[in-house]
Amino acid sequence: MPLRKKPFRFSIWQRRSLKGLIHLFALGYVAWLFFAGINDQLGPDPVNTLINETGTWAIHFLLLTLTLSPLAKWLPSPEPMQFRRMIGVYTFVYAFAHLLTYIVFELQLDMALVASEIVSRPYIIVGMAALLLLFALTATSFKRIQRNMGRKWQKLHNSIYLILPLALLHFSWSQKTFWQEPVWYWMIGLILMSPRMKQWYVTYQKKSQKKSRDENAAT
Ligand code: HEM
């Protein structure tokens, strides 16, 4: 049920300020993390802190991206959708920083070690699948590419609904538990996905009803 009758709108100035603040936080935090890590200010295990912080914030941005469409319907307002590309791109930026930290600082660019880690830790393969999909969405997030791709664009961008369980599975697996911290993220993910799952179910039911009506008519 929408919160108000009249759609909520930001002024240009308000929208630009909010975007500026998000850029400042997202770029500032990742820059600070690397600066502090290099200057030995991230505690006893800076590499682990870097991996954990970049991974956790990639999940935060991912969940935030998925919040925007229900929020737009609930307010109602077209405004949240103006932030979707930006926050989606920061999901990729943090996930990529996470991978870089792991390969450059943890594995010291030793490619034989990278290969053996991939083979011995399946959660890395799950993380890689999520990252590759995130890359595909980021690379095709430009307006011109969206126009050129037509309906294929929406199909590709629906893979955000696959990225979420992959990223959460990677998270739980890396922690060796579904409970404790990961379970909260699964719960938030489930809440965000539930209106979409309901919608898919309704569409599926309508399609199968139409199919059986068509089959009955043909016999
Ligand atoms: C090539 C892709 C990836 C690699 C190689 C990778 C690697 C890792 C490693 C080594 C850990 C640490 C496990 C430990 O503590 O022993 C980790 C944890 C984690 N990763 Fe990834 N990851 C990848 C992709 C992703 C993506 C795409 C996301 C999210 C969108 C993500 C989110 C996380 C989170 C949340 C954690 C747990 C952080 C914590 O302990 O608080 N990872 N990953």
UniProtKB/TrEMBL annotation:
Which GO BP terms sit in this record? Answer: protein repair
* Compartmental location: Cell membrane; Membrane
Any GO MF annotation of the entry:
oxidoreductase activity, acting on diphenols and related substances as donors
Tell me the keywords, alphabetical order.
Answer: Cell membrane, Electron transport, Flavoprotein, FMN, Heme, Iron, Membrane, Metal-binding, Transmembrane, Transmembrane helix, Transport
Q: Which InterPro entries match?
A: Fe3_Rdtase_TM_dom, MsrQ-like
CC annotations in GO:
plasma membrane
* Cofactor entry: FMN; heme b
Q: How is the quaternary structure described?
A: Heterodimer of a catalytic subunit (MsrP) and a heme-binding subunit (MsrQ).
Similarity annotation: Belongs to the MsrQ family.
Q: How does it sit in the membrane?
A: Multi-pass membrane protein
Function according to Swiss-Prot or TrEMBL: Part of the MsrPQ system that repairs oxidized periplasmic proteins containing methionine sulfoxide residues (Met-O), using respiratory chain electrons. Thus protects these proteins from oxidative-stress damage caused by reactive species of oxygen and chlorine generated by the host defense mechanisms. MsrPQ is essential for the maintenance of envelope integrity under bleach stress, rescuing a wide series of structurally unrelated periplasmic proteins from methionine oxidation.
Q: What name has this protein been given in UniProt? A: Protein-methionine-sulfoxide reductase heme-binding subunit MsrQ
What is the taxonomic lineage of the source species?
A: Bacteria, Pseudomonadati, Pseudomonadota, Gammaproteobacteria, Alteromonadales
Q: Which domain of life is it from?
A: Bacteria
Transmembrane region positions? 21-38, 58-75, 87-105, 120-139, 160-178, 184-203
Residue ranges occupied by any Ferric oxidoreductase domain in the UniProt entry: 54-167
Respond yes or no to whether keyword Hydrolase is given for this record: no
Q: How is the cofactor bound?
A: Binds 1 FMN per subunit.
